Amino acid sequence: MLAARPGMVDAFGRDRRGFIAAKLIRVAEDTWLDQVESTGGTAWDESRAKGGDQPEIAAFFATMDTLVSSDRGVRYDDAEDGRRAVRTVAYGPHPSQVGELYVPEGDGPFPVVVLVHGGYWLAMFDRRQVTPLADDLVGGGYAVWNVEYRRLGEPGGGWPGTFDDVAAAVDTLDGLDDRLDLANVQVVGHSAGGRLAKYLAGRGDGKVRLKGAVSISGVLDLVEADKDRLGSEFADPNAEEAAGVPPVEFPDANHFDVINPAHESWRAVRDWLADRLA
Question: Which among 155, 115, 129, 163 has a CA at the least distance from the CA of 237?
């Protein structure tokens, strides 16, 4: 499956400009519907082969026959062994209104870290950006709730939908798993997610009260960010920096190095969490 994944992603990019998400639905013994969401809307293609007329997509979907099981909550990811167990939970009807719950082995209760990814609030970036941090935290004995939210380029993304989503995602922790210590919940956000983390920390009406918040390279002054045209030119996601990005604090690091589990900034965050959630 992992070998087939790059070709599938490339094929979606060629076939659907603004590709957001895809879903394969079996409607008969030998008939499937390919539901493809893009910034231009949603398309439904009925076919006799998984993936329709795109051979790379069909090749990817064909691997699912040997991988998908009835074990609810198992996701096949890009981990070294090709598989990582994690529970994916929807908190709303939109495909981006989901979170992934990682829980260490044992009975708990475990302190909880809510992860909120960044990426200029744009749909091209998703929660996979911070899965290495989730792995690192789980290894340290924390439960992790890695949340997704509607972003710019998706219906409802922006104000207030993005903010409503992260608030709803945190409240979904209430009753989600009895191994979670809901008296010890922190939120950690990076970049645009750092702004959302600060918003969550300032809420006073949530079901789940946060013990603290960490903003990593957070975009906190939106007025100044707009004046500097921060992120306004992002045609090339592989560019070194987007327009208006201020100089980094550490010259040997870029904006995304700080979410590397081995980076000194992340180690400092982890130490802070350990002190607060002890």
Answer: 129
Q: What is the DSSP string of 129-171?
A: GGHHHHHHHHHTT-EEEEE----BTSTT-STTHHHHHHHHHHH
How far apart (Å, rounded) are the C-alpha atoms in residues 96 and 207? 21
Nearest to 16 by CA among 8, 25, 26: 8
> Distance of alpha carbon 231 from its chain centroid, rounded?
19
What residues have CB less than 8 Å from 80, skipping those under 6 apart? none
Paired sense of beta strands 74-75 and 41-47, if any: unpaired
Q: pLDDT digit string (tens) for 95-126?
A: 889 999 999 988 889 999 999 999 888 887 88
In which residue are the tokens 């895809």 written? 22
Sheet holding 143-147, edge to edge: 87-90, 98-102, 143-147, 110-116, 180-190, 212-216
pLDDT tens figures, 7-46: 877 776 676 556 666 666 666 666 666 666 666 666 666 6
Which among 175, 169, 226 is positioned nearest to 197, based on CA atoms?
169
Q: What pLDDT does residue 66 have?
A: 54
- Number of C-beta neighbours around residue 271 at 10 A: 10
Joined together, the tokens standing for residue 7 give 């070709």
Burial 16-37 (b: 16+ CB within 10 A, else e): beebbbbeeeeeeeeebebebb
What are the φ and ψ backbone dihedral angles of 7, each rounded to 5 degrees? -65, -40
- pTM of the complete model: 0.68
Rounded Cα distance between 157 and 123, Å, is 9
Beta carbons of 250 and 235 less than 8 angstroms apart: no
